[in-house]
Specification:
The complex is a heterodimer of chains A (about 250) and B (about 280). With about 250 residues, chain A is an alpha/beta fold. Chain A is built from nine helices and nine strands. The longest helix of chain A is centred in the C-terminal third of the chain and has 16 residues. Chain B has a domain of about 190 residues: Orthogonal Bundle (ABC transporter involved in vitamin B12 uptake, BtuC). Chain B is built from twelve helices and no strands. In chain B, helix 4 runs antiparallel to helix 5 and helix 4 packs across helix 9. The longest helix of chain B is centred in the C-terminal third of the chain and has 39 residues. The chains are: A alpha/beta (about 250), B mainly alpha (about 280).
């Protein structure tokens, strides 16, 4: 077996709870993302999937529990949030967006030369946007823009990569291309964690699955997790909440 | 012939040099304000420095140092307070700035009218470009130098933070720091500009060339260059028109900037009205 190119640590969760205004969005979740694993996070809307990602990437404080990133800093994890927050009319070129991926190595001031520009060009080639370096992002389609963001993630060269609904509103061909990239990252030994809605896609491409409905429903090999029984349990989770809910008994 | 007023009168030369200095530094900041969707923040900050200037004048007399220090302190205090309020409560930054600047503006007017500081409210609001003295000129030049150096240093983080603040925050780039530093530069430029143009008109020289820049250039750097060019031309033309037609200088300069802005809006090469209206045959592929 080929030795992995990138050493990524396991990420362990123990009783992780994330709350908004005391209401749990993620409730007592425990388990581990194995080193170099490829995991899909699935669950209904409002199940706390994004909150869990935000906790993983350090953007959200834990209300209870511990999260052991195996020695990685939160900022070492590459994170692609859900689309639509970025201003796609911003006057910036594809190449410049991709070059942002160098940030962890160059910081605000260190120079970027031919080598860095070459890597950006290669990354654009790899996502199927060869020759787009000078194009303004305003002229891109949603799918092409997502490809640019994936190219930026390539340059980030992170051991753990976290994607939040990366294939929303993306066509089949672009999804297939980007999935090949995800498989390549996995092959290089990186851990990839992605929130997804399409269960067929998860079955075909993600060996591990975490089914979340605020509480952990199941976590393990995809076939064992995505069963009708588990799906029913996840759907039973009420999206609303009890107005007069008392404090959680499990809270120590 | 065209340059006659500047060759003949020292006060015109001073006004021109002062306005050119402002034209180099303020419009680039305006471009970033527009890109950060904070176009109206310049206005808010322009009003926010008013109580500081008035207090400075009340305490230290009608001196450049006293009024400028007061203005800068008040501006920075409001930027910081609004930033803290935003971070602490999650309300939008423009909303908290709006709250703070309205209070500051009212306080400023109360101080000016009650204090008997001898400050003319009209001079504060509309400036006196033809009364720019050596000290004010030096202050503007220093501000421009500091601003251009700072922009050169923080260009990469500023562009990154403006486009994708979440990315920079996550990658450990210190997002809030760049944002506050940038707003600090805006305050500094508004205070420097108010001597020549007044607090109301100072915002005009920052924002009008900047909002017009998107009709002339498609990149951030191009927009910065376009905005500076527009401000330089507006300063020059505005001063000449005000001299020959005997109009107040500050508003004349801003009106000139307005003409350039309207020209870009109607006929600029990027996304202007004309580009939208004139139908050109579509390309083959």
């Amino acid at each position: 077996m080929r030795r992995p190119l990138v050493r990524s640590p396991a990420i362990r969760l123990a009783d992780v709870t994330v709350t908004y205004d005391r209401r749990p969005a993620v409730h007592h979740v425990s388990g581990a993302f194995a080193a170099g694993s490829l995991t899909a996070i699935v669950g209904p809307n409002g199940a706390g999937k994004t909150s869990l990602l935000r906790a993983l990437t350090g953007a959200q404080r834990l209300d209870a529990g511990t999260l052991d990133r195996g020695g990685l800093a939160a900022s070492d994890i590459a994170y692609l949030p859900q689309q639509a927050v970025l201003d796609r009319s911003f006057p910036i070129s594809c190449g410049e967006v991709v070059m942002m991926g160098h940030w962890r190595r160059t910081g605000p001031f260190r120079g970027m030369g031919e080598a860095q520009r070459g890597e950006a060009t290669q990354a654009l080639d790899a996502v199927g946007l060869g020759g787009f370096g000078a194009r303004q992002i305003a002229s891109l389609s949603a799918g092409q823009f997502q490809r640019v963001l994936f190219a930026r993630m390539m340059l980030e060269d992170a051991p753990v990569i976290v994607l939040d609904e990366p294939f929303n509103a993306i066509d089949a061909r672009t999804t297939a291309d980007l999935l090949r990239l995800v498989a390549r990252w996995h092959g290089e030994g990186r851990s990839v964690i992605a929130v997804l809605h399409d269960h067929d896609l998860v079955r075909a491409h993600f060996p591990q699955t975490l089914l979340l409905a605020r509480e952990l429903i199941a976590w393990g090999p995809t076939e064992a997790v995505l069963t009708p029984a588990n799906g029913l349990r996840a759907r039973m989770m009420a999206e609303g909440w009890d107005e007069d809910s008392g404090t959680c008994a499990q809270a120590a | 012939m065209l340059l006659d007023p500047f060759l003949e009168f020292a006060f015109m030369r001073r006004a021109l040099v002062g306005c050119l200095a402002l034209s180099l530094a303020a419009p680039p900041l305006g471009v970033f304000l527009v890109l950060r969707r904070l176009s109206l923040i310049g206005d808010a900050l322009g009003h926010a420095i008013l109580p500081g200037v008035a207090l400075g004048a009340t305490v230290g007399g009608l001196s450049l140092v006293a009024m400028s220090t007061g203005g800068i302190v008040a501006g920075l205090a409001i930027v910081l307070a609004a930033g803290l309020a935003t971070r602490g409560t999650g309300i939008r930054e423009d909303a908290s700035l709006a709250g703070f600047y309205l209070v500051a503006l009212a306080a400023g007017v109360v101080i000016v009218s009650a204090g008997g500081s001898g400050v003319d409210l009209l001079d504060l609001l509309f400036g006196a470009a033809l009364g720019v003295d050596d000290g004010a000129l030096l202050f503007m030049a220093v501000t421009t130098t500091v601003t251009l150096l700072a922009l050169a240093i923080m260009w990469r983080p500023l562009v990154t933070e403006t486009f994708d603040p979440g990315f920079l925050r996550h990658a450990g780039g210190g997002g809030a720091l760049w944002h506050l530093g940038f707003l600090g530069l805006v305050v500094l430029n508004l205070v420097a500009a108010f001597h020549a143009l007044g607090t109301l008109m100072a915002v005009g020289l920052m924002m009008l060339p900047a909002t017009g820049a998107r009709f002339w250039a498609a990149s951030v750097g191009g927009q910065v260059a376009a905005s500076v060019a527009a401000a330089v031309v507006a300063s020059f033309c505005g001063l000449l028109v005000s001299f020959h037609a005997d109009l107040p200088t500050g508003p004349a300069i801003i009106l000139a900037a307005g003409v350039i802005w309207a020209t870009g809006l109607v006929a600029g090469p990027q996304g202007s009205l004309l580009r939208r209206l004139v139908r050109r045959p579509h390309l083959a592929g």
